[in-house]
Amino acid sequence: MITEELLESHQALRKKYTKGDIIFREGELPNHYFQIISGEVKMCNFNDDGREFIQGIFSPKQSFGEPPLFLNRLYPANAIAVSDCELFVLSKPLFLKLINENALVSMAIIENLAQRLHYKSVMAAEISSQEPEHRLLKLIDYSIRFFKIEKEKEGHRIDLTRQQMADLTGLRVETVIRAIKALEKKNEIKIINRKVFR
Amino acid sequence: MITEELLESHQALRKKYTKGDIIFREGELPNHYFQIISGEVKMCNFNDDGREFIQGIFSPKQSFGEPPLFLNRLYPANAIAVSDCELFVLSKPLFLKLINENALVSMAIIENLAQRLHYKSVMAAEISSQEPEHRLLKLIDYSIRFFKIEKEKEGHRIDLTRQQMADLTGLRVETVIRAIKALEKKNEIKIINRKVFR
DNA sequence: GTCGGTTTATGACTCAAATCATAAAGCAAA
DNA sequence: TTTGCTTTATGATTTGAGTCATAAACCGAC
């Protein structure tokens, strides 16, 4: 999102996290801009009885957690390392300075926020009013269309566990497993040793 | 969001719509920036069997429908006039010119997008994993905290119909009616001739 | 190779919200 | 003040996803 040179010239630090590490918690006050160098990070909420909802999964070059930075609000969700990862970390004042000085960066931020808003609009409509199979197909197609999914000879391989799909769509694992099988039967997707292809 | 002077100096037009008018449709290509002068506009989706999901309701001074403008994507939802209203309408190229020339405006856009993203994060987590009463209370509290809700002696009056609350939370009207009554019984809210107060 | 943890799988059962039906109350316009 | 439409209300019934239980398949570490 923001180039390495620009980040480093503004004294961004590199910081390593190991799988499972909590980068920040829901309810905390944001103080930093984060951008992924390597690895994956998820933002998620846990409801009263521990069930998880995944707001999004982020990959290298993507940033996360900026919105409340601009609003002086508390984080609405947790950020957790999905795998070992390395991040650029830039303090809030330096980050704001950076975007004020650089029109291109602020345009990039706008596009980034617009993109996430688009995803959330699409999924919110799905989650609130569509059946499990429909929701899952939308998630899969959205992932293919807008995320980094390499096409193989069997089709696009969806690199999400059933549990992750469940947490992204607000369903239970068992429901996802059953819906995925139903979709295979309808020839909407293929399952090749447990991986979903489309 | 963007000042009247700035909009008019960039040749924005004023356009009137009457209650129920469709301002743009899901699937269309965005060509304009819209900002409300008076009245209210909702953005919503309709699922396969006609059920509505309300993405958001927008009031005077607020803009809507920009995200896909920045992404060259199709509108993910419909925009419909909730009441008679008047809007500023600015063509895409002129709008992009305006924000490029004006750092303050682009910062305002960022804040606006961040705000909507925050709302969507909160509601997505609710809708996907909380009970009806919890969802409704969150919607109500969010509305009070972040939208224009005047405090009266009975508390904050929530100016949403039961149907709108249903369409905002992904519930059915009957469920909302019952949950609202349950919340009254628990003294979380008051109902004074059918209006909800908190 | 074996062990332990994760992921996928499947059946039986439950239950809360959706659905369906019906009507009262409120409100705006004729 | 009557008419027609919207909004709120309430009971009965259905249903599909959630829950619970159990296990097989897979995978990485030792």
UniProtKB/TrEMBL annotation, chains A, B:
<dbReference type="Pfam" id="PF13545">
    <property type="entry name" value="HTH_Crp_2"/>
</dbReference>
<dbReference type="InterPro" id="IPR036390">
    <property type="entry name" value="WH_DNA-bd_sf"/>
</dbReference>
<dbReference type="InterPro" id="IPR018490">
    <property type="entry name" value="cNMP-bd_dom_sf"/>
</dbReference>
<keyword id="KW-0238">DNA-binding</keyword>
<keyword id="KW-0804">Transcription</keyword>
<dbReference type="Pfam" id="PF00027">
    <property type="entry name" value="cNMP_binding"/>
</dbReference>
<dbReference type="InterPro" id="IPR000595">
    <property type="entry name" value="cNMP-bd_dom"/>
</dbReference>
<dbReference type="GO" id="GO:0005829">
    <property type="term" value="C:cytosol"/>
</dbReference>
<dbReference type="GO" id="GO:0003677">
    <property type="term" value="F:DNA binding"/>
</dbReference>
<dbReference type="GO" id="GO:0003700">
    <property type="term" value="F:DNA-binding transcription factor activity"/>
</dbReference>
<dbReference type="InterPro" id="IPR050397">
    <property type="entry name" value="Env_Response_Regulators"/>
</dbReference>
<dbReference type="InterPro" id="IPR012318">
    <property type="entry name" value="HTH_CRP"/>
</dbReference>
<feature type="domain" description="HTH crp-type">
    <location>
        <begin position="130"/>
        <end position="198"/>
    </location>
</feature>
<dbReference type="InterPro" id="IPR014710">
    <property type="entry name" value="RmlC-like_jellyroll"/>
</dbReference>
<protein>
    <submittedName>
        <fullName>CRP-like cAMP-binding protein</fullName>
    </submittedName>
</protein>
<keyword id="KW-0805">Transcription regulation</keyword>
<feature type="domain" description="Cyclic nucleotide-binding">
    <location>
        <begin position="15"/>
        <end position="116"/>
    </location>
</feature>
